[in-house]
Design goal:
alpha/beta; two-stranded antiparallel ribbon; 11 helices
Length: about 300
């Protein structure tokens, strides 16, 4: 497993991490999957207080007990549940962030979070207040670094300009190349890393992709996805499609880590095998880009 520095931080993260949202709620199974990932060189685990109403953080906490110092835990904040109501409300206020971190620490069974991320955000948020909350949490030693999870270029630009974020988490794959338009080069220039989520696009970019293409993906229709998959296979030079997809997400210099999810041991091991493959050549990257869409942000500029 290769490791990359996360932005300007001291954190060295495995180039393939584990997105924990897909682990489910069964403790034995989830803990086993996390242990397998750690034993195979993964050191970056991404969760959120929102996932399974906090249960996901609890499972991560149980899994890293006894090996906390070997693991980089990333979690997220900003979606507040209202007692007695369905769903959640967006709350990037300083008061909520500084309150919510205590609940995450309790569920994770740790006294610090390596990377605390704002779980969304809009240009209309009280951004300076939000930044102040994260900076105070750093000073208090409750978090080591902070970042944001966002696909919105205007929001990313504001945090890159006004804060000390070390990372931005965004959906990025062959099927969703929006970060290439405005985000990746900006982050590279600012010394901020991208954490790429969704590299295999809900499993569409995999050997079983045909079965998962039924509902389409973003503005790709089923037929367009099937055609693209066939072309990707033709250009893969024998490489497994999901390995190619994971390697594509790692191909830009701004990307430090990609976090495919896994709900089974076979899926986890298959994803991690991408770490044993060579980085894509510029020629392969260009061929993949030629057959896929250079998607653009239609909103949230």
């Amino acid at each position: 497993m290769l490791f990359n520095r996360l932005g300007s931080s001291e954190l060295l993260v495995s180039e393939i991490g584990l997105g924990c949202m897909s682990l489910g709620t069964e403790e034995g199974k989830a803990v086993k999957l996390i242990h397998e990932a750690l034993d195979r060189g993964v050191n970056f685990l991404d969760t959120a207080d929102l996932y399974d109403e906090g249960r996901n953080e609890e499972l991560v906490g149980k899994a890293v007990r006894g090996r906390r110092s070997d693991v980089i835990i990333a979690t997220k904040v900003g979606n507040r549940r209202v007692p007695g109501q369905e769903g959640w409300v967006w709350d990037p206020s300083k008061a909520y962030i500084k309150s919510a971190v205590k609940d995450s620490l309790r569920r994770l069974g740790t006294d610090y979070i390596d990377l605390y991320q704002l779980h969304g955000g809009t240009i209309d948020d009280p951004i300076d207040e939000t930044i102040e909350a994260f900076e105070e949490l750093k000073q208090e030693g409750l978090i080591r670094y902070y970042g944001i999870s966002s696909i919105r270029p205007n929001v990313i630009r504001e945090y890159a300009k006004r804060s000390n974020i070390v990372s931005v988490m965004s959906q990025y794959s062959i099927l969703d190349r929006r970060p290439e338009e405005e985000v990746l080069d900006l982050l590279k220039e600012q010394g901020i890393s991208l954490i790429a989520r969704g590299p295999v696009a809900r499993g569409i970019l995999s050997g079983s992709g045909e079965a998962k293409a039924e509902k389409g993906y973003l503005d790709y229709s089923k037929d367009e996805l099937l055609s693209l998959l066939k072309q990707v296979e033709e250009h893969a030079d024998g490489m497994d499609v999901s390995h190619l997809a994971i390697r594509y997400a790692l191909s830009h210099a701004a990307v430090a880590c990609t976090i495919p999810g896994a709900s089974s041991l076979d899926q986890l091991l298959h994803n991690l095998a991408a770490g044993e493959t060579e980085p894509l050549s510029p020629q392969v990257v260009q061929r993949v880009q030629a057959i896929s869409r250079a998607k653009r942000y239609e909103q949230h500029r």
